[in-house]
Write a structure and sequence with these properties.
Number of helices: 11
Protein name: DUF479 domain-containing protein
Oligomer: single chain
Helix content: 55-70%
Strand content: under 5%
Number of domains: 1
Pfam family, one: ACP_PD
InterPro entries: ACP_PD (IPR007431)
Order of helices and strands: HHHHHHHHHHH
Shape: globular
GO biological process, one term: fatty acid biosynthetic process
Organism: Pedobacter frigoris
Radius of gyration: 18 Å
Length: 228
């Protein structure tokens, strides 16, 4: 799941440090794609630090949500549906259809949460602003990221740009997908292909907009059972 879908499960959480932790694994990958951190294997390093414990708790929640999502029938079936819909986009493109369908599904879910009023993007950003950056820096260093300069440059830019507000328009989902693909492939799509992609994403959005919340309900039920 992408940033806003992860936030959905903690949209009423008053703990801004846990909210930050919920999206932190994806932030790390966006800032430095070759960095791999495994703080859950070193829980003892954070046990005496309340704020870092909150970040770790959010990190663990992120992993749980992704595991449930990626093993769900919804993910498997809808990824396949989207892959079939967008196949015309891939002529002479190096991009792998399954990769695009996987990421595309996640971004369309974010888009639907926004346009259906299920989350407030500004609340998400407000929580990120309030999170304790000193505790975050200490957390990252303990987790193995000794130089946090690049990460905080990414985080500051992410917060100041408020880029996720653009997810309200489906054409910006195509743009975001293209930017993601550009990290892996040179010139993944032409402008004409991106226009086709936008149309295909609109078709897919219309197909799932009456059922997309089912996966969020399924994950919420799992999280509630875990707390019992």
């Amino acid at each position: 799941m992408n940033f806003l879908s992860h936030f959905y499960f903690d949209k009423y959480n008053p703990d801004e440090n846990m909210v930050l932790g919920v999206v932190l694994p994806d932030f790390i990958k966006n800032a430095q794609k070759d960095v791999n951190l495994y703080p859950l294997k070193e829980k003892h390093l954070f046990q005496d630090m309340k704020l870092q414990q909150s970040i770790l708790k959010g990190w663990e929640r992120h992993i749980e949500v992704d595991n449930v999502f990626h093993s769900s029938d919804f993910f498997k079936s809808q990824t396949n549906v989207l892959k079939q819909i967008i196949l015309p986009v891939f002529e002479n493109s190096p991009v792998k259809p399954f990769f695009m369908a996987h990421i595309g599904l996640e971004l369309v879910l974010d888009h639907l949460l926004v346009v259906k009023g299920m989350i407030d993007i500004n609340t998400f950003y407000d929580q990120l602003v309030k999170a304790d950056k000193v505790a975050l820096n200490d957390f990252l260093q303990k987790a193995g990221l000794t130089d946090t300069t690049i990460f905080f440059k990414f985080l500051d830019g992410f917060i100041s740009s408020r880029y996720l507000l653009s997810y309200q328009k489906i054409e910006n989902i195509s743009y975001a997908l293209n930017r993601i693909c550009m990290r892996i492939w040179d010139n993944p799509f032409t402008d004409a292909q991106l226009a086709i992609l936008t149309g295909k994403l609109s078709i897919f959005k219309n197909l799932i907009e009456n059922q997309y919340l089912s996966i969020f309900d399924e994950i919420t039920q799992y999280l509630d059972q875990e707390q019992i």
